Amino acid sequence: MKPIRYMHLDVFAASPGGGNHLGVVTDAAGWSDTQMQRYARWTDLVETTFLLPPSDPKASYRVRIFTPQKEIAFAGHPSVGSAHAVLECGLAAPKDDLLWQECGAGVLPIRVEGSGPQRRLLLQSPEARVVKTGLHAHPLLASTLNGIGLGVLPPALVDGGRRWWLAECSDEASLRAWQPDHSAIGALAVASGSMGLCAFARSTHPEYQLVVRAFPSGVGIVEDPASGAANGLIAAYLLHAEPNGPLARGYSVSQGREMGHDALLIAHIAEGIIWIGGHTNTVIDGTLHWNDA
C-alpha cells in the first residue's frame, strides 16, 4: 500500500492537548472495510476516520468513522476534525463558507469561520427529538443519578444522530466533583439502547455558560473529554424546553477538565438550527505506512 498522509488531531481544544484525539487517514480510496477496521483497532483511539472521494454530487468529501470495534454513522468531533484535515490537505474548499460532509448519517453542512490558527469549524447537528422526560422515565434512571443534585430541567432521553440521556445538575461545582456509578450508567445505556448519560450544569464563568460531562458507557467509554453530538442534543433540549431562555441563541461549553483535558465547544443557535464546533489543532502530520493486504 502506498504511503498516505496521516494526521493526529486535537479537536475542540481550549488549550494545546485539551481536546479529543482523532486520527485521520487522508486518502483511503484503496482501503477495504476490513483494512479500515483493523487500522482503527490498532490506533485504539476513540475514533479514527478515513477520507474518500464523495459519492453524492452535493458533498465536498466523504468520511467513514470507525471505533476500535465497529463503524459508526456519525459523531461530532470526528466530523469536525475530518473537516479540518480536508482543509489542511487542500482536498476541498468551502463554498459560501460551507463544507458538505458525506457520512453514514447523510450529507451534513460544516460551517467554516475564520482562517489559520483562529479558524473554527461548526457542524450542523442532525434534527433531534425529546423521546421522554422525567426522573422516572426509565426504571434505572433515578438510581443512576444518585449522588448528584438535579437542576431546573427534568432528565430527558433525546435522540438525534445519537441517543443520550441528559440530566441537568444543580451547579458547576457539584457536577465537577461527582463520582458517578459507571456500571449503573452502563446498565441504563444497554437497557435503553442509548450512548449513556450526559450531565450538564449552568455556569457564571466569563468564558463558558455550561459545563458538560459525558459518560458513553453504552459504547464502552468511561468518560469523553469533548462530545460534539452530545452537546448538540443538549442544545436541542434547551431550545425545546426554554425557547426564550438565556441559552436559546447559543453559548460556550467547558468539558473534560475532570479527566485532565480542557475542551471548549461553541453552540450557535439560529432559526432553530444548531451548530456545534470549535478549534482543532494539528498535533502530528506525517506519513502512514500500513502494509495490510
UniProtKB/TrEMBL annotation:
Q: Which Pfam families match?
A: PhzC-PhzF
Superkingdom field: Bacteria
Signal sequence, renumbered to the chain: none
* Matches recorded under InterPro entries: Phenazine_PhzF-like
Homology family:
Belongs to the PhzF family.
Protein name according to UniProt: PhzF family phenazine biosynthesis protein
Organism encoding this protein? Dyella lipolytica
